[in-house]
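Justification of resources, computational component.

The compute hours requested in this renewal are based largely on the per-chain cost of generating structure records like the one below. Each record pairs the submitted sequence with a full structure-token output. That output is archived, and it is also reused by downstream analysis tasks.
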Amino acid sequence: MKLTACLASTALYLSLGLPQISAAQSVPDAPKADPAMEVVVVRGSRLPESVPGDVKPELVIGTFEIRTTGATSLPELLLTLLPQTQSGARRGDNKPILLVNGRRVADFSEIRAIPVRAIRRVEVYPEDVALRYGFPADQKVVNLILVGRFSINGITGGIGQSADAERETYDLVLDSTRIDTNGRSVFSFDAQKASGVSEEDLGLSLSPGGIPSIRSILPETETYRFSGAVGKSVARLGEQGYVTMGVDAQSETSQSILSRSLTGSRLARDSETTKAKSSVTTEGVVKDRRWTAIVSALSEDQTTRTDRADGRARDRTNQQLTGASFDGTLAGPVPGLLAGTGAFSVRTQASAERLESDYTRGLLAGSNDLDRTKVDINGSFTIPLASRKAAGSRFGDLSLTLNGELGSSSDFGGSGGWGTGLNWSPTNELQITTRYSTSEKLATLEQLGGPQTNIPSASVYDARTGLSLRLDETRGGNGTLLPEQQRDFILGASFAPLQIDGLNLSLTYARNKTEDYIGSIGVNTRAAETAFSSRYQRNSAGTLIGQDTRALNLGDRETETLSFGLSYSRNFGQAPQFLRDIVTKVQKAQDENPDATTLPGGLPPGITPPPGFKPPPGGTPPDFNQLMQAAKIPGGRWNIGLNYAYTLDDTLILKNSGVKLDLLDGGALDTEMGRRHHLTLDGGLNYRGIGGRLAAVWKGEGEIATGYGAERLFVDDQATLDLSLFASTDLMPQLNMAVPFLNGAQIRFEINNLTDTERKVTNSAGLVPTAYQSGLLEPEGRSYKLSLKKQF
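The structure output for this chain reads:
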């Protein structure tokens, strides 16, 4: 009989940390998870779980590359891919849309606990793919392809401390993941606790030479979260029918110390927040058309209580947000077009939300109830104009995409938007995209109707008088906010040269126009105070005594940005020598005795079991070819990802005064505006499970012309480096065989803000206003964290 060595199972399952087949999950005729690590850097054959159609991913990362990042959870993995998943469209939070096996998910909480060991492959797609799932083309798409069968539990504990603030943090995560051919379940419980940091801890005072106060800069917090989802194949829904039920529940409490009362007792501010969300997702395929229906419900409750210096009853604010929504999508191919097969998508969204808020502040009280019902319908149609594959075009692949949107809300009425784009791929290496789109973005109910909150003794710099002050700051909702009207033009190109495997380059030009731009004012310049005078309260002497920082429609903003992206990775080295020796010995024994009866456990005659050898718990062990694949896995890998954005133009025409501000030349309204340069970098090195990663963010300098005489504020450039060092047994086969308990273990040491850089703000005299002391802006400084993770 042919040799089926259990040694192969040991080397693959115990040593390389690949998914193990448990006896409870054994299904005789079910396909197994791919037992060999997939080594893919940029290009690879399409898997059934990939995004349907002819669209090509910009980046493909295989199992081995995923393991060498050192990430153990999905959020950690996404951080390492941040430079490659940032969109050049420069809209919103710039986070990618996430798919699992080519399918939508209702909420990130459903998949955030998926361990990296369960991810077989990651594909990164350009922004236009978002249209196929009913999203605007201003986000990239990341598709996670999972292994076919998987079962694991994990526990992670972490402890951290900041060097200057001496803030202590504690983390505990328990997670469980099960995947088989009929469905999956993912659950996670998180507990986090962090101590508070006060001005007294850092020796800070708003008055030069004064006594530091006990006021909190960072609150003491405690957070608990449970989230997860259960998915199941349902044949009644037709081909690829699937149902997923998800839940996410969070509870957070925090406490900040404000000051001391006249009697010497501490005045505190307490906050309690609870959130709950549930969803049901159903999906299937009918004649190559995929449909998805997501029904969700949410509830959020936040209460804040603040002590008063006059001894009266505590100030109180409360807001309750409840809502339900339906999100349905139908998408698929359109065959029979002139140059091949096109694609279409139609998405319908309907939601109802209610926000109830109230506040009491001394003798003042108020409440607000807001309701919003909203219906949106959008669709996209992709038409191939030329195709190398279908029509033999020498011009390459060229497609036209058209999309439109109609919407109606109970509070702002009807709205609409449209877009068009061209995708041209003259060669397999080069892809060029251009797109123009218009859309409308509504303010959230929290921005409109959040309860008015008073922050006593806030630290503020008054540019008019040049003084740093303690005053009452008003926050909350603003019911007069208008929707933003957005217009975007994007021209981009991506290049992956065949001669340099592992290299991806991209270049994007984006022009964004926003009418009724929503923002807040962080510095009271003359231009801002003239246009929005009601936001500032001064006494008869002209001293600032109160400031309203609620969001408002600042005016019309226009930006032009040029973004450059680079991704490069290389594998190096060989599999451990002992594993290659095993292959040689087994191959020799098999060649010499092809029909010999194997010893108990599947070992061929003459082979001594290695330390820690155990026969597999059930099922058929891998064959010798799989062991050969394992022996060919590289010993290590290094990679680098970079995204650099250069702002060509950034202007803002203030709403009430019509004054045009050049935000790149002194017109900024806060210390984060007016920065021309922004760089994100992530690089890592891993050799047989031991490695490290370095993540960097660099922001260029900025400048604020206050308008009061020659007074200016200068914001220095800042580079922040985060370093993580780790040892992961996933790529340590010899250690796993000798000590099987260590399989799936990792120790990690992180240093955030490695160089202890600070955001530095100085005035025209070169001095730092006390309200802009670095300890107030970034109190944690350099911080350390040690964590241990074990998966069973």
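The longest helix spans residues 577-592. Residues 1-36, 41-45, 611-623 have pLDDT under 50 and may be disordered.
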